[in-house]
């Protein structure tokens, strides 16, 4: 029995190793996730940590002669005032300038009479890249407004503190690692994707592929119980999944430990090799689950292509809760551990956060996943024992 | 020896086998002749243990397929209707895989493979990957892997389909050699000339039943025709699907 399983396993592994195209695409796939994370870290890091003092604020201004005090205030606060284009609205719309500050000629009159003085900020907030500049100009204007208001009140003998009802102090409890998490939330998702993609070519080749090249019938005439074929073909996919998983994790390790991430985003993403190994072990039951699931699905396909169409939807199912994780805070409760793949995603996130992980959660999650995988293997074997596994077309 | 007794098999509303009974003894080539859709392939699939009959029984060397399917599978070498190869494996690797699945290994297996490569005159393609092989080359590999464990019973489903004249002649020669070695050969075809050229004993199947059996002479005598072709048409009741 073990010998026959080994014979089928070895044949499938050798056969699929020779399928250069599938294996190359697997490796590229494994690198895709980490590279995308690196790109995100780089871009988001740039966006979040732009240093205001290094980046001069340029304000195109129209009608500056009506408000010399405001202009002086802006200049004192390191803003560079330039002449506005002739048609501010068109210029902003075209993206020639980020914004234009327009001071109408009524400004001086309104200001000196103590009425609210109107200024216009011509901007296009739908351009995300200008948000930062708009905010900085608004902040400056509101600083000018409170400074002027305070002086007016003092001139009338009223303490400016009277108008300040609240002082909001933000106490930031996030650590550097937890701020880094916004980059890490996608990692469990990519790992699951690797698991579901890494072995799919092998499983499809060993099932629907056999049917398509008409080699399944002669194969099944050999004196080998069907369950041995099912087990051997499933096992044959596992080295390929593990290879993809290891490449993905290794690429992440390189990104977090070799690439100067902290320079890009201002803090370290501390993921050590020990956490990555724990994550790898946590993933193992899911590898079996994915193989068994693919084994069942490909049973219903007549051709390689048909099988591919079904199998490519599969990773979306476990990915959905992972996407939810990006937006929700999920606590590692027991009921979550009962959902295969979801529990693991929560636990992987915990490992990444450097939080203490409850052993009970790891055990429950792994055992439930293994049990579900076992049931799926039994289903696959049942399907393979049916007559119409071979003759779907005729039946 | 292959014994088939009153096999019935139904797929949905299609009655593929309706009480097929015949016997294929050792040392003889038994031809299963019938038009397309007569039930030949279904009958062979029951003998490969890929299908369970609804009724009736079949035995290979006395082993009942219902209870001893795996043991019976060790005693047959089959060239089924579908005989695809693994295109990324060489001819030798394709044959070796099936030998190992039959429980063979080591030098016994390698010697047997060399013997078959020689017998089928295919040393030139032995170590080439089978991707892009011609119909004849594919068939040779498929025959070799069916014979790798030196089976006592050989079942061939339309083995000369799509072959050129030279390869067909070579195939016939191999089949005769197997008979002369005392093997039981069961050979199915819808082509009358093919069967009459090769077979010692003919079983004519139509609509899931055996409509005639015996030597070509017996069948001519039974129908009172002096020409084999007319005799076949007479027992089948129609010319449809019988001639190439």
Q: Can you give the mean pLDDT of chain A?
A: 85
Query: What is the strand arrangement across the widest sheet of chain B?
Result: 6-7-8-3-9-10
| Class from helix and strand fractions of chain A | mainly alpha
Number of strands of chain A: 4
The number of helical runs of chain A is: 19
Please mark out the parts of chain B with pLDDT under 50 across 5 or more consecutive residues, or reply none.
Answer: none
**Oligomer description:** heterodimer
The share of residues in helices of chain B is 25-40%
Strand content of chain B is 25-35%
Task: Give the N-terminus to C-terminus distance of chain A in angstroms.
Answer: 31 Å
- Profile the largest sheet of chain A: 4 strands, mixed
Q: What is the molecular shape of chain B?
A: globular
- What can be said about the biggest beta sheet of chain B? 6 strands, mixed
**Most extensive interface between two protein chains, with residue counts:** A-B, 28 and 34 residues
What distance lies between the first and last C-alpha atoms of chain B, to the nearest angstrom?
Answer: 30 Å
Short précis:
The complex is a heterodimer of chains A (395) and B (244). With 395 residues, chain A is mainly α.
Give the topology.
The complex is a heterodimer of chains A (395) and B (244).
Chain A: H1 2-17, H2 20-48, E1 57-62, H3 68-76, E2 79-83, H4 88-94, E3 99-102, H5 107-112, E4 120-123, H6 131-155, H7 176-184, H8 187-198, H9 200-206, H10 208-212, H11 216-220, H12 226-257, H13 261-265, H14 273-299, H15 304-311, H16 316-327, H17 334-337, H18 342-353, H19 359-385
Helix pairs in contact in A: 1-12, 2-8, 2-12, 8-12, 8-14, 8-16, 8-18, 9-12, 9-15, 12-14, 12-19, 14-15, 14-18, 14-19
Chain B: E1 2-11, E2 14-24, E3 28-33, H1 40-47, E4 55-60, E5 63-64, H2 69-74, E6 76-79, H3 91-101, H4 106-119, H5 135-147, E7 153-157, H6 165-180, E8 184-189, H7 192-198, E9 201-206, E10 209-214, H8 216-223, H9 228-236
Parallel strand pairs in B: 3-8, 3-9, 6-7, 7-8
Antiparallel strand pairs in B: 1-2, 1-4, 4-5, 9-10
């Amino acid at each position: 029995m073990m010998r026959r399983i080994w014979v089928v396993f070895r044949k499938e592994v050798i056969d699929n190793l020779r399928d250069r195209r599938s294996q190359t695409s697997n490796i590229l796939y494994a690198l895709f996730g980490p590279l995308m994370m690196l790109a995100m870290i780089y871009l988001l890091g740039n966006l979040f940590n732009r240093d205001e003092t290094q980046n001069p604020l340029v304000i195109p201004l129209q009608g500056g002669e009506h408000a010399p005090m405001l202009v002086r205030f802006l200049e004192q606060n390191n803003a560079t005032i330039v002449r506005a284009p002739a048609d501010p609205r068109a210029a902003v719309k075209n993206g020639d300038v980020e914004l234009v500050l327009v001071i109408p000629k009524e400004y001086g009159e309104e200001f000196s009479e103590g009425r609210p003085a109107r200024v216009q900020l011509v901007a296009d907030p739908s351009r995300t890249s200008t948000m930062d500049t708009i905010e900085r100009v608004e902040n400056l204007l509101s600083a000018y407004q409170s400074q002027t208001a305070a002086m007016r009140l003092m001139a009338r003998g009223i303490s400016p503190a009277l108008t300040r009802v609240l002082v909001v102090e933000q106490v930031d409890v996030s650590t550097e690692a937890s701020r880094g998490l916004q980059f890490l939330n996608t990692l469990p998702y990519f790992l699951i994707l690797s698991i579901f993609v890494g072995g799919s070519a092998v499983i499809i080749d060993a099932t629907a592929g056999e049917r398509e090249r008409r080699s399944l019938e002669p194969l099944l005439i050999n004196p080998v119980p069907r369950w041995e074929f099912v087990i051997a073909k499933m096992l044959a996919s596992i080295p390929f999944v593990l290879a993809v998983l290891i490449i993905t994790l290794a690429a992440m390790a390189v990104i977090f430990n070799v690439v100067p991430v902290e320079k890009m985003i201002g803090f370290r993403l501390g993921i050590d090799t020990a956490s990555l190994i724990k994550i790898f072990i946590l993933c193992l039951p899911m590898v079996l689950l994915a193989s068994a699931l693919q084994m069942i699905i490909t049973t219903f396909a007549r051709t390689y292509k048909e099988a591919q169409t079904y199998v490519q939807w599969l990773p979306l199912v476990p990915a959905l809760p992972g996407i939810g994780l990006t937006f929700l805070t999920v606590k590692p409760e027991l009921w979550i551990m009962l959902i295969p793949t979801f529990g693991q995603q929560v636990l992987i996130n915990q490992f990444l956060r450097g939080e203490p992980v409850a052993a009970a959660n790891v055990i429950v999650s792994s055992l439930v996943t293994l049990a579900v995988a076992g049931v799926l293997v039994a289903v696959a074997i049942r399907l393979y024992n049916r007559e119409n596994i071979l003759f779907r077309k005729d039946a | 020896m292959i014994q088939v007794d009153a096999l019935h098999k139904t797929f949905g509303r299609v009655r593929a086998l309706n009480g097929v009974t015949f016997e294929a003894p050792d040392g003889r080539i038994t031809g299963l002749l019938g038009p397309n859709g007569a039930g030949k392939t279904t009958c062979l699939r029951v003998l490969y243990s890929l299908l369970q009959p609804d009724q009736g029984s079949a035995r290979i060397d006395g082993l009942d397929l219902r209870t001893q399917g795996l043991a019976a599978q060790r005693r047959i070498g089959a060239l089924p209707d579908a005989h695809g190869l693994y295109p990324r494996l060489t001819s030798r690797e394709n044959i070796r895989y099936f030998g190992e699945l039959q429980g063979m290994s080591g030098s016994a297996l390698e010697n047997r493979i060399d013997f078959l490569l020689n017998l089928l005159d295919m040393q030139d393609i032995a170590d080439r990957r089978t991707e892009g092989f011609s119909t004849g080359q594919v068939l040779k590999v498929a025959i070799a892997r069916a014979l790798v464990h030196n089976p006592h019973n050989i079942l061939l489903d339309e083995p000369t389909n799509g072959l050129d004249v030279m390869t067909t002649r070579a195939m016939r020669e191999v089949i005769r050699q197997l008979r002369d070695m005392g093997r039981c050969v069961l050979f199915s075809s819808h082509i009358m000339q093919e069967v009459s050229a090769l077979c010692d004993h003919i079983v004519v199947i139509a609509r899931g039943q055996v409509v005639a059996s015996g030597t070509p002479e017996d069948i001519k005598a039974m129908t009172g025709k002096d020409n084999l072709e007319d005799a076949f048409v007479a027992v089948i009741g129609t010319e449809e699907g019988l001639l190439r």
